[in-house]
Structures are given as C-alpha cells and as structure tokens.
What we know:
The chain is of the alpha+beta class and 351 residues long.
Amino acid sequence: MRGLKIPFVALVALLVLGSHMHAQRPPTLSEQSLPIALFERFLESARQQAGIPGLSVALLQNDRIVWDRGFGHQDLEGLVSATADTPYPLLDLSQTLAATVLLQQCLDFRYLELTDRVRRWHPQFSEEGTTIAQLLSHSGPDGFRYDSGRYASVTNVIEQCAGAPYSVLLAREVTDRLGMVDSVPGHDLGDSSASNRRHFSSSVLDRYGAVLRRVAVPYRVDSRGRPSRSDYSRPSLTASTGVVATVRDLARFDAGIGALLESSTRDRAWQGGSGPMGLGWFVQPYNGERIVWHFGLARDAYSALYISVPGRNLTVIMLANSDGLAAPYKLSEGNLTSSVFAQLFLQLFVS
Length: 351
C-alpha cells in the first residue's frame, strides 16, 4: 500500500509555527486567518502526494463554516472541478448518522436502554450476550473489533424500535430536518429496482437522482500516483454504509447534532469507553482535548475523514474520490494520528 509523507522541512516548519501560534491561547479562526491559509497549502500538497484526484473539505467553528473548498477534480475525464457541493458516498461515516437516529428515536424517547441485548430487538443477531452499547462501539465480550458488517445490524434495531424503515427515519429526522438538500439516504435509490424507492415521492426521488448524477467519479490510484477510473457498486442503505452527502451537508449535521439529541445523550455518545469508540464515534485524547472522529473507506474508490474537537467547537470534514484519505492508515484500529491528513489539522488548530 502506498504511503504519504510530508516533506521533513515543511512538517518541521508546520510544527514550529503551530506551537508558536498556540503558545498564549488558541485563537479563533475568525481572529487568525493564517492557520487556514497554511492548512489549505499543506492540504493541497498532501492531496497531490497521495494522488487523490478530487478532495472536498469544510472547516467549522462555533457551528458555522469558516472555510470550505474543493481541490482537484471530481471527474478527471470531464475536467469537472471538485467543490464543497460535490456529493460523495460517506461509506463508514454513515455509522455516525445511524447512531444519531438510534439514540434520538429510541434512547431519548426511552424505548430502549443501552444495556439491552441486541437480540431483544434483532432476534436473528448471532451474538447472544452483546448489548446495544457494545454494538454501537464495535465491541463485545472479547473487546474491541471494528466490523462494518456487524454494525449493519444496528439497522434492524432502529427499525424494530422506531417502527419505520431506516431510510425514512434518516430522511425525516436528520437530512430533511437539517436542510441537507444534497444528501441521499441510500446510494441505491438511484437504481429503479431498489426496494427503498417505494417510501419516497416521485419529486423526492427526482431530487435524489439529481444529486446522485453529480457524485464524484471513483478512482484507483496506482503505486506511482496515477489514477484510473474504477467501479463502485451502489450499496443498499444500512446503518453501516450507503449514505451520500457533501461536506457542506455534513457541516449542517455537525452544527445541528445538538438539536437532534439531548445533551446528555450526545455526551454519552462522545464518551470513550474501554475501547477506542463511544457510540458510533471514535473518541481519542489529543493535547488535552477530546477528539471525536470517524472515517470512511472503499478501497480503490472513495475515502472520508470527519474530525471534531468539542472543547473548541471545531470540526473538519474531508471527502475524496480515491481511497487516499484512509487506505494508507490503520484508522479502524482507533488511532487518528496515524493519518497525515489528520495531523495537518491537529497540529495547526489543536496543538
């Protein structure tokens, strides 16, 4: 697997400058534009070194976007530039949305307890003693084990508890409620045979179809950094994958999560446990701050990275049309700092 390194001199300069900037107190982004300019410059360098054809990024502070843009191309052959409004499959990032729906519709309404066994709500689940909390945190009797296929069982729990199809709940309670107009609750809704289509009106399906036609083209990047168009089969929506969105729509989700969940529930979701995950989110300490994050990966196709610093009300969201944001790093093990892209953000804005 190809790796990515920032030139040593550039990285040293970045660390020194970041340390100097934060020696007194962390400036807000509105007070100090230099970190954004540096972040943009190093991010473009990292994108080029990783061979990522197209990258879209949004930076938020205090629940508003302070900077966003696209780098490179969402379609190389058509010379279509990537923008902050380019849609991408969210891949594993879909898990954070599913966790939000479950916590909102089931836990906040007191229909479900985190200590409930999964089999109470999903009798066909293969593990007898696993609880809802353990499923959401990718853990079980044997400890932490990241498994997207296993997490898909959250879908059954949501539907049984809330009494409605997950795609409907996701649209009604999250994307529509937050004005995420460039988001689609299931990449498969673009297929005329998809069973989920029956839950939506023709006008809504037309809107979803327009979004799906703009989805960034997936690319495979070889060891020499040369991209070629790749295949990506549209997955059916589950709690584990299938959502399509833009960085601007994810920014709306980030700013609106406090309106979706009770504050105590949100805090519980962002609380680390015995493993590296809370409830649908990775949780990790860094420089005295709690970092809440997740990633997405479809090899030779797409990748995603979502990093939030609740103590500074600061978030960055990155979506790419190759696997370069995640594939070179073992993010499923729960160590965000293994990612060069994460390090750029953390060193400039959190150190």
